Amino acid sequence: xxxxxxxxxxxxxxxxxxxxxxxxxxxxxxxxxxxxxxxxxxxxxxxxxxxxxxxxxxxxxxxxxxxxxxxxxxxxxxxxxxxxxxxxxxxxxxxxxxxxxxxxxxxxxxxxxxxxxxxxxxxxxxxxxxxxxxxxxxxxxxxxxxxxxxxxxxxxxxxxxxxxxxxxxxxxxxxxxxxxxxxxxxxxxxxxxxxxxxxxxxxxxxxxxxxxxxxxxxxxxxxxxxxxxxxxxxxxxxxxxxxxxxxxxxxxxxxxxxxxxxxxxxxxxxxxxxxxxxxxxxxxxxxxxxxxxxxxxxxxxxxxxxxxxxxxxxxxxxxxxxxxxxxxxxxxxxxxxx
Length: 338
Ligand code: TYM
What we know:
Layout: H1 2-5, E1 8-13, H2 21-31, E2 39-44, H3 46-49, H4 56-72, E3 81-84, H5 90-99, H6 104-108, H7 111-119, H8 126-141, E4 146-148, H9 154-171, E5 179-181, H10 216-224, H11 244-257, H12 261-267, H13 273-299, H14 302-331
Parallel strand pairs: 1-2, 2-3, 4-5
Helix pairs in contact: 4-13, 5-8, 5-14, 8-9, 10-13, 11-13
Ligand 1 binds at residues 10-14, 22-23, 26-27, 45, 48, 135, 138-139, 147, 149-150, 152-153, 156, 186-189, 198-199.
């Protein structure tokens, strides 16, 4: 009974390329503690990945690897529903209905659409534009009230709220109106090469991004090359708006070591960037290594991953069917004759 009153949480990551430290610190890591308090669904959003061209075999492989990563990061299939988006067909069906209450102008204004259109100028497909509607469908299908994401997804969650409110106003109360949950320091982890831009999976410069599969040498090499500044003063390791590279490294250090930014500034006083960067590397490596070992162990047991996904899809479908039936009824579609 207690489960029925728990607020619902929904979030997801695309199985596109390699998961980054930004995905981990901005999203996945913040999901684990929520499992104790909320009814959580965590999804591998494979349909979203199709908005940019994928190699089919790699997409399948990434989907399994991301599921194993979720579990390795502490998502517990006994507590949370872990599933693949395309296993629950209601996501795509609800997206169609939500399309009819979403304006082309709204979608054209989305920052991510504009960015991706620039990056993939030869493939500005309708899916890229519709992406936020499918995301709204993911969230609204489960009546989720809380959506833990990084800063770059806030605009999409705000659009989801607008769509939910518009639908509710037109067809009577149907959807819970969700809210973003943002972590303070991890909400936007920046590129190591351009600390004014976010760390992104699709960055062609591999030195800009730490991935969750990077080994210790790669992490250390990338952090040593991270862009800082030419400050040589005793307190050069300082969190400040005019030091975006150093501030980003301090955030990463703090999140991975558990030491506060202020404490870290004191620890590294009088020490140069070389010592600091090595300490950041040690902290990141100590977070990544146990996750990597656990992911490897899980991937060796495909039957287990499949059983998690089977159960997850069943649990998710149960909720999704109810919402979609309600929506179809509200908009005036005739129920299937049995
Ligand atoms: P995706 O796969 O791009 O990113 C997954 C999560 O990681 C966060 N993130 C970051 N956080 C901090 N710093 C960064 N540099 C960084 N890069 C990425 C993202 O904000 C996200 O939370 N559209 C979503 C996936 C999605 C979804 C949903 C999320 C589909 N349906 C429903 C929530 C609810 C996305 O592109 O994620």
